[in-house]
Records
---
Amino acid sequence: MSRKKVTILDIQKRKQNNIPITMLTAYDFTAAILVDQADIDIILVGDSLGMVMLGYSGTTQVTMDEMIHHCKAVARGTTAAFLVGDMPFMSYQADVAEAVRNAGRFLKEAGMDCVKVEGGREIADTVRAIVRAGIPVMGHIGLTPQTVSQLGGYRIQGKTAASAQALLQDALALQEAGCFSLVLEAVPAPVATYISQQLTIATIGIGAGVGCDGQVLVYHDMLGLYDRLQPRFVKEYGPIGEKIVTAVQTYADEVRRREFPAEEHTYPMNEAEEVAFLAAVAGR
Ligand code: KIV
């Protein structure tokens, strides 16, 4: 039986009823079908696609057009999961009107249900404007990969009392600005738990401990498909990457030994067809 479309109200209800929310990234049609079949609540088309799909060194190079292209493919493969489109670096930071227009493209052109933006109090006015346009917004604080240069690297955030307090202020400001949920990335578990308890909107943790209202991982990380960056918070659920390499090696070996394609993978001719064919080519 196909499940019902997950809505923003379902996400709010899960927070109220203390039911953990599941979120995973997907960046293409086939992955979206598989993740949706696995009953994940939310699919994030994250700008992490810049690294795992496009081979960039980080997320800052990702463009609006690249995001829209991947979001469209994911939307075509999804029937039930709530869809989040990640706004790329510089698509919302420079100008509020431009931010609203770019957010609109995620819903209008790409079939997303909401957008995600990175940043704290400094982007509250932008969030307010996007929400006012009728577009739900998921916030993202803690380790924000788009500003990794400013943060001095991919490092845990909110470790000192002052920085933890600043994170709480950011979370409250984003909630007040209208975010319906918030990603907390690479934040000590006690800080993330406390922030989750202070908010009425759902928190989705990645490297933020079990006290968040939900969890998110990157598809390629949890399946062992990408090994260039392996943060402590990643749990690998299936070494699919190794399986792919073994399968491809086996295919190549069979081709070299002329064992593939076998008869069952080949279109045959009956004897009469073959005789007619040979006669035709002999008369050329
Ligand atoms: O782009 C992404 O995949 C993300 C998650 C790490 C939350 O923002």
---
Amino acid sequence: MERLQKVIAHAGIASRRKAEQLILDGQVKVNGEIVRELGTKVSPTDRVEVDNVKIEQEDKVYFLLYKPRNTISAVTDDRGRDTVTDLFPNVHERIFPVGRLDFDTTGVLLLTNDGEFSNVLTHPKYNVEKTYVATLQGVLKREEMRKLERGVMLEDGKTAPARVRIISSDDRKGKTIVAITIHEGKNRQVRRMFEAVGHRVSKLKREQFGFLTTMGLNAGEWRELTPHEVKQLRALAQTGKIG
Ligand code: URA
């Protein structure tokens, strides 16, 4: 169930505020009856009319984007930078990113117009695992790895246990490539975790979100999730298991 003004806004008829005014002015009917209460909730099967014209409720859509660098995980940007939704010029549904990746982070980012789905996947009480591959300045030492695995203190609290695996380590160049798996989603969490043990992250990619990867896509490309993947993601968020 969604609030009536949201359904009207999502159908592209008017802004949320304008939709409220249409309701207050008696221009909106639900199943043939004029409704003037702003809190009214409707389901996708309810017939909603604005000025006696039935509105089409938008279908829910789900995309997996291989986010490129230098794009912002938002629908609009007041500084005029490219946003991830700019990569979907022919998609007319009002999609938004599920959570965020930093401007210069690449990798798996989901986009949808399904607010409830997005809440389930980003809510801290649910735990979808995310694996990042980070290029670090300096060589990551064993004790530093252990600290990350146990959890490190950040300004907004201690991080939950993480899995850390060194992919390659180059003493001469002073750099380490490492995979880290976490299930929280604190702001800039991975960068801050490595900074907390003394390493700056120079490159960061989200390799995996739950069971989803960027396989088959180049940076900037996207595909639709299958209905089965959408179902599996919901199950994963709620139980930590697929299926
Ligand atoms: N952690 C970060 O530091 N940045 C991201 O973009 C995602 C996770």
